[in-house]
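Hi Y.,

Following your request, here is the sequence exactly as I used it, all 92 residues.
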Amino acid sequence: MTTQVAILLNQAKQALTIPVAALGDKQKDGRVSVKVLVGKQAETRMIRTGISNNVQIQVLEGLKEGEKVVVGDSTSLPKTEASAMPPPGGRR
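Below is the corresponding structure, written out as tokens. Let me know if you'd prefer a different format.
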């Protein structure tokens, strides 16, 4: 017989959260970098975070509701022949 137990240590209601995957490097002062989409460009911003459930993390300062954070960045990936091909469903 197995059991799964969950213990609630902290709780935040009406909190601004972002995916943990959006977090970048952590600084010595505890702030964390995230990339925020401003127009069509991504800018790096430092934020302070709170509690996390390992999927979402609370944002205490540095972001406002409605701002878009970048979760993945493909600009550092090498170009391949497949990326040069037109998308499927093109002219026949």
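The beta strands are 17-19, 23-26, 32-38, 41-52, 56-61, 68-69.

Thanks again,
Q.
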